[in-house]
Amino acid sequence: MSIANTAAQAMLSDALLRDGPVDSRIRSLELELPLDKVIKFVSVGLPLLLVSMAFAREITIGPQISCFPPTNFTAKQAGYVDTYCWDSLMHHEFDADGNFEERSLWVHKMFPYSLLAMAMLMYLPALIWRFLVMPCLGADLLFIIDELDMSYNRSVRIAQSILELQQNAPCQMEFQAELERARRKRYFEYPLLERYMQCKQRSYFLVSMLFLRGFLLLLFMSASCLYLVYFHLSAFLQDEFSCFVRTGLLRDQPWVPELVQCKMTALLVFQVISVANGVIYVLLAPVVLFSLLRLFCWDTTFLSLYEVLPGLGLISGRKLGCPLNDLNVLLLFLRANVTQLRSYGRLRAMCSLAPPQIRGAAVRAHGKMSGYHELKETPSCSYA
């Protein structure tokens, strides 16, 4: 019997977590949810990619129009017409009454810059999250992660002490009575983490900032799609225009016609870019909505594993209420930072290796002391 107890104590000592450097853990914390990262990269990176394509074509090809001056124009005069019409981008025509009208087509020249403005707007919610939320979120996550790891260490040490007391107890009946008294007095509980999480149930800063981030993304994507639709209807369906060229050096030349026909050579590229950008934003909107709708449901899978420890009883005590609070957000981020929880893997392994009846009790989280019986029985079971 003493050999088995000694072996169990040795295994419990090996199960203790060692302290690690805090700075490295802070730097490696994930302070953005994976789905939010994907939304940010797509919403910001897509217009940046498209605007780089538009600028690359403009740099390599030059003016995005091709004008058709009269045949008596010299090469320099024809080049002047192309440059002037691209700089002005004004469509001139006569109405039914013979009046001279003009309409600006500057949307073609400003389209790459409007994509750049879209990218900046899409990055604004992430920028707000970075400077207003990340500092306090990192502190909360680091505190909860440390407390969960310390609760695991405390449970292992208490289980080790219970084994020693049981081995040295002169009477097993007295030992069981003392254990029951300690259980009734709740000596094994560590209420700091539980009370902190209950406090987070009454806090709404993180969840409100997540809703603000999603609302701004939906607002900016809707504005971008409306912008693209408006300019498609107003200018992007017109690939030819009449340019008034009798100005400057050609003003006093009677042989120069008033209007020269020009054609947009890059219109198809701009149309493809704008349609691609609008379609991706339309498809991205349901993803943003899903990222907000998941805040209406509790994710208790992560907490249920730690319910086998006596330091946490939010699920077993049925203390969870409305999920729209900061605690639900912290649970989502804890799941994203599960690699930083050194106790998570060991506790999951212990629950997996435990006998079925103990593992079922762990999942149902029956009672505070059941975790200590599991820690007490699991090593000897696995050792055998």
Explain what you see:
The protein is mainly α and 384 residues long. The protein has one domain. Helix content is 66%, strand content 7%. The strands form two sheets. It has a three-stranded antiparallel sheet, covered by helices on one side. Strands 2-3 form a two-stranded antiparallel ribbon. Strand 2 and strand 3 (100-104) form a beta hairpin. Helix 6 crosses helix 13 (342-353) and helix 6 (134-168) crosses helix 15. It is rod-shaped and about 120 Å long. The model is unreliable at 361-384 (pLDDT under 50). It comes from Scleropages formosus. It is found in: Cell membrane; Endoplasmic reticulum membrane. Glycans are attached at residue 72. It holds the Pfam family Innexin. Structural component of the gap junctions and the hemichannels.
- Describe the global form: rod-shaped
Q: N-to-C SSE series?
A: HHHEHEEHHHHHEEHHHHHH
How much helix is in the residues? 55-70%
CA gyration radius, whole angstroms:
34 Å
Largest sheet: 3 strands, antiparallel
The number of helical segments is 15
Widest β-sheet, arrangement of strands: 1-5-4
Average the pLDDT over all residues and give the rounded result: 77
Number of domains: 1
Q: What's the end-to-end separation, in Å?
A: 13 Å
- Percentage of β-strand residues: 5-15%
- Structure summary, number of beta strands: 5
Which residue ranges are poorly predicted, with pLDDT under 50 across at least 5 consecutive positions?
361-384
Which structural class should the secondary elements be placed in? Answer: mainly alpha
